[in-house]
TrEMBL record:
It comes from Nocardioides eburneiflavus. It holds the Pfam family XdhC_C. It comes from the Bacteria. This is XdhC Rossmann domain-containing protein. Residues 23-140 form the XdhC Rossmann domain. Gene3D superfamilies: NAD(P)-binding Rossmann-like Domain. InterPro entries: MoCofactor_Util/Proc, XdhC_Rossmann_dom.
Amino acid sequence: MSTRTGERQQPWSDEPVEQGRILVLSDNPIARSIAVIASTVGRTVVVEAADDGGPGLDPRRGDAVVLCDHDAPDAPGVLRAALASDAAYVAMMASRGRAAGLLDDLVAEGVDVTTLHVPAGHDLGGKAPGEIALSVVAEIVAESYGRTGGPMRG
């Protein structure tokens, strides 16, 4: 015989969780979708529209940096700064093939790219900007909780 207290357990917590910002370069449909989805899950998002890095994303401890335009003129500089910062997550939108030259250049400069997520996001199979953004935000959330992002069913 089981006893029930009448209180329902909820699968979420009402306790606020402090998370870093999500910094996105540059302004495009995927970046705008990341902003909408990440804002919905309670994350602060900064989209830097200037494809040259603008005034600088200035990542802080716990931030996530997402380079949505691997062809941006300052992509190497943005990645250099983000990887050298205390950012918790650094990612670039690009296939491994498209990113290879940029990664080779960074490695030749002595930049440690082992923590760089490329391609960014989880393998959900999505092709539309919102679907790609969902996979990136899911990866950021999973990483912030030390999870892999796999299915919850056992």
